[in-house]
Amino acid sequence: MTTEMQEIAITEDKPLLPGQPDGIKDAEIAARILLDQGQEHTVETAHGVLHVTVHGTGNARRPAILTFHDVGLESKSCFSTLFKFEEMQEIVKNFTVVHIDALGQEDGAAAYPAGYQYPSMDQLAETVPTVLQYFNFRTIIGVGVGAGAYILAKFAMCNPEAVEGLVLINIDAEARGWMDWAAHKLTTLTSSITEQILTHLFSQEEMSAGTELLQSHRERISKASHLPNMELFWKSYNNRRDLNIDRSNTFKCPVMLVVGDQAPHEDAAVECNSKLDPTTTSFLKMADAGGMPQLTQPSKLTEAFKYFIQGMGYMASSCMTRLSRSRTTSLSSSYSMEGSRSRSRTLSQSSQGGQMPPSPSHTMEVSC
After folding, report:
1. pLDDT higher at 26 or 221
2. Sign of dihedral through CA atoms 188, 190, 194, 197?
3. In this structure, which CATH number among 3.30.70.1130, 3.40.640.10, 3.40.50.1820, 3.20.20.60 belongs to the domain 39-323+363-367?
4. How far, in whole angstroms, is CA 54 from its chain's centroid?
5. CB neighbourhood size of 158 (10 A)
6. Which helix (H) or strand (E) holds 163?
7. Burial of 149 (0-12, 13-18, 19+ CB in 10 A)
8. pLDDT by residue (tens digit) across 209-225?
9. Is the confidence at residue 250, as pLDDT, over 60?
10. Where is the composition biased (Low complexity) (predicted)?
11. For the residues 102-114, what does the mean pLDDT come to?
């Protein structure tokens, strides 16, 4: 009897021994695959049904990270490279990540019928509170690109209590002027919808070079079954209203603006930065990033995002893993604080550790 009891105990201990293939490891692998794919949901809103993907269970005491993609993209093609980046996992494991696909923009969506009235940009922003309510999120950190940046900016202005921070990539907060409107009309007569969207997503240099990334997106967009839906989203974005941002009517949370050097939206992002509160705004201009820095420079963007989150009081003990492996990283920055005269300095971080960059209480213009 004693021998039997000992054998049973040994058998039950075996799965806990390291290096032993067993059912527990299989379950862990399956759970990891499921977590990586995310849980897909359909959320009914006043303007239509949204496709939403949630990764992780997060921490109820922390905001969810909520993303909104650009025209011609959906959450996977817009954010997978960034959020699956190795060093981003330190952030992802500490927060629930929620990816919203704009109405009718998810991969494989059915095309809307002819004559369908697609929601305006303001109405798309009105769908975000429904998502928060559906998942019982109290607050978020918003990460938006292009049209998605505009939508999250509008949401933050209307719901300041629900937004703890904003990362706005390639934002254009202004309505199209007459010259832009005329140029757009001419473009619609001479270019396909695919090429119009590509010139929105990529810089002139990338368009001329015909990069591999550009070619892959050209093929994806041109063959998409829901291309008519993309066109409706594109038209809605081009008919956007001015957000009327100024320092007396601005965001109530820290904001990080991001744009690629020589990107199509560089001037618009610079203009937006000039109108925001310098005590709560960081401006990151990324060299060699093209029109989509979240795809071409995920490492640098991850670093900046970590600093941004740390400045908000989260992940204070987090280390900059890529910086710690490098010998020295320098960021040339100019910043102003509370209207004082702009100054310049260089921030360095060595392999032995380093200083934190300016907190979100500075306007920081960085070329990296």
Report:
1. 221
2. negative
3. 3.40.50.1820
4. 14
5. 14
6. strand 163-169
7. buried
8. 999 999 999 999 999 99
9. yes
10. 330-356
11. 96
